[in-house]
Design a protein that fits this description.
The complex is a heterodimer of chains A (69) and B (166). Helices cover 49% and strands 0% of the residues of chain A. Chain A is mainly α and 69 residues long. Chain A has a domain of 28 residues. Chain A is flat, with a radius of gyration of 18 Å. Chain B is elongated, with a radius of gyration of 29 Å. Among the domains of chain B are: 81 residues, no CATH class; 33 residues. The chains are: A mainly alpha (69), B mainly alpha (166). The interface between A and B is medium-sized, with 20 and 24 residues.
Chain lengths: 69, 166
């Protein structure tokens, strides 16, 4: 029986391969607008993604501490 | 083959234990205080950033308690207090771990992150050898004791009223 899922949860967070979402700016007047369905599907809207971003910030701080920066 | 620890057979909730109170009387049965992950993150980060918390965390880490255990306990306490739901707690747990590790690194504590395998799949030969040696020593001690008891001359106890006192 799994009593403590923390290890698995931490290991499943693939922070190193976290991709930043790039917004493609469209300039033309007739360019297609963002669909609502696309916005909801985007990774940045997912709670796990936001958690991963916060983790990345903290890990960066840890790295700086270890390297003595 | 690994040597498995024996678990107590009766270490489980008694049937009907959850029904000993009215439904909704417990904090975890009511609506959660923080419904989103962002709110839960804000709650935990603000708590963990205090000087008082950091001191306590460093003490616990120095005692050898794993980061995974502390993080899991914290999120479980959050659920029990009705702060957030279990699924929000699951999502927040890795962030709590990262924060704890940052606190540990900052205080230069040699902490146990709990990410390595807790139980080895096989009992190491060295461990078996240690146990074998311990058992052999115990057996030798018992055998020596038996030999010394046999060597001693038996002194008959005199029980009569007129017997000499020692």
């Amino acid at each position: 029986m799994l009593n403590n899922p923390a290890r698995q949860l931490y290991m499943n967070m693939d922070i190193d391969n976290l991709e930043e979402e790039k917004e493609v700016t469209s300039t033309g007047l007739l360019s297609p607008r963002k669909q609502m369905s696309n916005i909801s599907k985007s990774a940045s809207q997912q709670p796990a993604f936001r958690v991963a971003q916060h983790m990345k910030t903290l890990r960066k701080q840890r790295g700086m501490l270890k390297n003595g920066d | 083959m690994a040597i498995e620890e024996q678990k107590p057979l009766l270490d489980a909730p008694i049937p009907g234990m959850s029904m000993t109170h009215e439904l909704g009387a417990r904090p975890w049965q009511t609506a959660a205080q923080f419904t989103t992950v962002d709110e839960a993150i804000e709650y935990y980060m603000s708590r963990m950033a205090t000087e008082e918390y950091m001191e306590q965390a460093v003490e616990v880490l120095e005692m050898g308690v794993a980061v995974t255990d502390i993080a899991n306990t914290m999120q479980m306490a959050g659920v029990m207090e009705g702060k957030h739901s279990i699924d929000v707690g699951m999502l927040v747990t890795p962030l709590i771990m990262e924060m704890l590790m940052l606190i540990g690194d900052n205080a230069e504590v040699d902490y146990d992150d709990g990410l390595t395998d807790e139980k080895p799949t096989e009992t190491s030969d060295a461990k078996i050898d240690i146990i074998r040696r311990e058992m052999k020593e115990r057996i030798d001690k018992v055998e020596d004791k038996v030999d010394t008891v046999d060597d001693e001359p038996e002194v008959e106890e005199t029980k009569g009223l007129m017997a000499r006192r020692v």
